[in-house]
From TrEMBL:
Residue spans crossing the bilayer: 478-499
Full protein name: Calnexin-like
Region (Disordered): 256-353, 504-600
Native source species: Acanthaster planci (Crown-of-thorns starfish)
Family: Belongs to the calreticulin family.
Amino acid sequence: MRLWWCLVALAVVLDCCPVHGEEDEEDFDMGDEVDIEDEPEPEVVKEKVIVQYVPPRAKGPTNFHDAFLDASAIGKRWVQSSAKKDGVDADLAKYDGKWSIEEPEDQPLQGDLGLVLKSKARHHAIGAMLDKPFVFDDEPFIVQYEVKFQNGMECGGAYIKLLSQTPDLELKNMQDKTPYTIMFGPDKCGNDQKLHFIFRHKNPVTGAYEEKHAKKPSGNFARIFTDKKTHLFTLVVNTDNNFEIFVDQASVSSGNLLEDMTPPVNPPEEIDDPNDEKPEDWDDRKKIPDPDASKPDDWDEDAPATIVDEDAVMPDGWLEDESELIDDPDAEKPDDWDEDMDGEWEPPKIKNPLCEDVGCGKWEKPTIPNPAYKGKWKPPMIDNPTYKGEWKPRRISNPEYFEDMEPFRMTTIAAVGLELWSMTDSILFDNFIVTSSRDVADEWAADTWALKQKQEGASGSADSVVSGLMNAAQDRPWLWAIYALVLIIPLFVCFRVCFRRSPSDAGEAKKSDAASPDDETKEEGEEGEEEEAGEEEEAGAAGEEEGEEGEGGVRQRKKATKADLEQSADQEDAPAESTEAAGDTVRKSPRKGKGKTRKE
């Protein structure tokens, strides 16, 4: 039964392991001779299925969509910025990062093109005007695009900016200060991973714009920066102010523009008066020193904290003439020591072994805490009778207060732009779409991203489970403990099942205990002798075993009964009882059910 459970446990563990090959369907006869060189096993080559790219078509109204069908679109539809970044050194101020429309390095769809950021450690800026400006009126806003970090991501962004419609908007002059309505997309530097959703809200009182940031997504999206696959990013902002963010069509964040943005869209009705000042006579001290307290006459502020222990005496055995450190007698001057260059060689110092017991060197009396020490005197603290509490400025009406219950109605969007800095190159963008229909966006994704996902998933399916677990643990470190338990528990159970001792084995071990010579000389047929009653003198046998002369030692055996035989199988060996009589040894066997011994 134990072997059966062991096999079951091993089967479970092996079943959890990935299988990287196929079993041979034919049985192999160990008696057959096979010439490995003459009959090599054919190598199985898995052919990669090539899927021809079919340009997608938007199946409904859009404000913008681009699948990069034209490799020469840069300079036409897509305009590269030639501006300079303000407040940066001249060498870095230019937006001179290179862009290209080309096929991915690992092509899931034959003939598919995308917009690729080609340079690292450079400022990049490129944009395209919408076919139709998006006006935030009575329809949802949806923007969707693909990103593929072909070389992973060390530090940089792949977010987009939906540029605001302004009279002076020129894509060739686009820079970091170009007004935008929404910024959306992934960003990473080191371990700081973000998925931005920022919108600029206009204060209807002052006319100033302020950035409103959505909370950090709760879903796991760390894998997008490392797996080198195509990922789909979707932002949906509804007319009721609710928004939702999707990565690969899975929701990772949602909220409301009025409730889940930082800082809040609507400012507080009241604020602290910036001109209010605390009065000079305002006492905000809870405790004060007691003005009526005085230092006691016997308080000595000059007394030291420690004094010499005058009662101390030098311990016996203290070696005042010995040094605490001595030259190492085992040290030798190195062969390459040059006294002209290195100076006179001196052996290193070690602790004097003679000082280990008591001590060496000049003995001085130790110091002890001074019982008269009190330190600097301070008056005790009492409640402040003039305490007025913590001062706070008075509250006044916020002169910039407003209440905007429809923050969805943002500034009209006129263009899509990419204004990025990256330490990693070869970031591919593809299949942009801006629309007010979720169905149109989903169908666009089905004709583009879904096909790529299928192809990339087929090529990397072997690592998908492991990479998924690793990525999940990046945001949730406590998952490592669960992974460890999942691995350790089956191994522990398998070990326990395979190597634990069963009760029957324990019984056999007791019966076969080699502590008694009676058991070693026991032969078949002694069962009949166990039924005989009486006592047997062992003096002769004892004399032979001990090799002594004199009176023979007598060993008596109690008549073995059936109850004794049954009981002896479950009892542990009892220590032998010994008595001495006239120099002879008398031994009583603890195994009453084992039968008589024979004279040796």
